[in-house]
Design brief:
Layout: H1 2-38, E1 47-53, H2 57-68, E2 76-81, H3 88-98, E3 103-107, H4 113-122, E4 128-133, E5 136-137, H5 142-153, E6 158-162, E7 165-167, H6 172-186, E8 201-204, H7 224-232, E9 236-239, E10 247-249, H8 255-268, H9 275-299, H10 305-329, H11 336-345, H12 349-359
Parallel strand pairs: 1-2, 1-4, 2-3, 6-9, 7-10
Antiparallel strand pairs: 4-8, 5-10, 6-8
Helix pairs in contact: 1-6, 1-10, 2-3, 6-10, 8-12, 9-10
Length: 365
């Protein structure tokens, strides 16, 4: 009986992940063709950059250097300080005085990242705004690529463009995050992108969601709730599938910070009104929980080692087939030990995140 259950789970999982891979491959082909066909025909959309900062004095200067030296300049860079206790606000004002690009430094009208982003958007003069984080590194043609993506997808229903983000320096954290980005990209072909990162997300200002749609009762979700709300309001969220649009962000500062990130992401799932996002999060949680349950059955001698290995190895091989394609697109170097470690620890994330979430309240900083 257990053998049949395992086979059924693996077949279902292979079907779901195979669907992601098919659409990611389609996006890679159609996205490249679309970009090449429109590269010289569209007028680049003017963009205002909004960056919410809290205690980022140690990274802000590198970030500003990256965004002011773009092949296409931003109309304005709005730095919103969210009640920092370090020198972030002072440094931002100093960098603004030295920049040849207009930089406006303002204080958050409320508290938290959601309020900071809204404060920045409320002060925007352009039709489109792009949000990012102070800990990212942006290639010099990032704004140009994102601007072209907006213009080339533009129709009356386009509300946002999600851009790719990768975690620098490789390793299992980079692979894990790339898998999520790859899945999000695979959902975007019809303009119904299921997930995005506020580290690289462009919005049409007049379509930015109302405060109540952003679930102000929880601190996390400034990106995914915005995307879901725009789609719920009848507009499209497309994907900029151009590597020039990709920004890099730093790895988590230790395992506690890494777990806190996962708690924030996990805490949002019950609020999802995007069917694909909700179903996917539930399925991933179910498979991981089943792996842990069968491992427990093995420890208590109600399941065989063959059954444990069948589910764990089968799931790992299915996931690797998809994730390897994604990491190649993101130009992330991987090795066998990364895949082995990730296949072992990935199912452990669900109980770890659950336990950590009970004793730690999710927060931005």
């Amino acid at each position: 009986m257990l053998f049949i259950v395992i086979i059924s789970i693996l077949i279902t999982h292979a079907t779901i992940v195979g669907h992601w891979l098919y659409h990611f491959n389609r996006l890679s082909v159609t996205g490249s063709n679309h970009i090449n066909a429109t590269a010289e025909k569209v007028e680049i959309e003017p963009l205002t950059i909004v960056v919410a900062c809290k205690n980022e004095a140690h990274r802000l200067e590198d970030f500003i250097k990256g965004v002011v030296h773009q092949t296409v300049s931003a109309v304005e860079i709005i730095v919103v300080d969210d009640n920092s206790t370090d020198a972030t606000l002072h440094l931002a004002r100093q960098l603004a005085q030295q920049s040849h690009v207009k930089i406006t430094v303002i204080a958050n009208k409320g508290r938290g990242k959601k309020a900071a982003i809204r404060t920045g958007i409320d002060n925007t003069q352009t039709t489109w705004v792009i949000t990012t984080d102070a800990d990212v590194l942006c290639p010099e043609n990032w704004l140009e690529s994102m601007g072209r993506s907006i213009a080339s997808h533009a129709d009356g229903k386009l509300g946002a463009i999600a851009g790719p983000v990768r975690i620098m320096n490789g390793g299992i954290e980079s692979i894990d995050f790339a898998a999520m980005m790859g899945w999000a990209a695979s959902t975007s072909l019809k303009g119904e992108t299921a997930m995005a990162s506020a580290a690289n997300l462009a919005f049409r200002v007049d379509l930015y969601p109302r405060k109540e749609q952003m679930h102000p009762e929880i601190e996390s979700g400034d990106d995914v709730f915005a995307v879901h709300a725009i789609i719920e309001n009848g507009h499209k969220v497309c994907w900029s599938h151009d590597f020039n649009s990709c920004v890099e962000t730093h790895q988590a500062e230790g395992w506690v910070h890494w777990l806190r990130q996962r708690v924030r992401w996990g805490a949002k799932a019950k609020y999802y009104n995007h069917n694909v996002a909700f179903r996917t999060s539930m399925w991933v949680a179910f498979v991981a929980s089943t792996q842990m349950f069968i491992l427990l059955l093995f420890v208590t001698r109600f399941a065989s080692l063959t059954e444990v290995l069948m589910l764990w190895c089968g799931r790992a091989l299915i996931d690797i087939n998809f994730t390897k394609r994604v990491t190649n697109w993101y130009r992330i170097r991987t090795n066998a030990i990364d895949w082995l470690i990730l296949s072992i620890i990935y199912p452990l994330q669900v109980p770890a995140v659950f336990i950590f979430g009970l004793i730690n309240k999710p927060k931005w900083k």
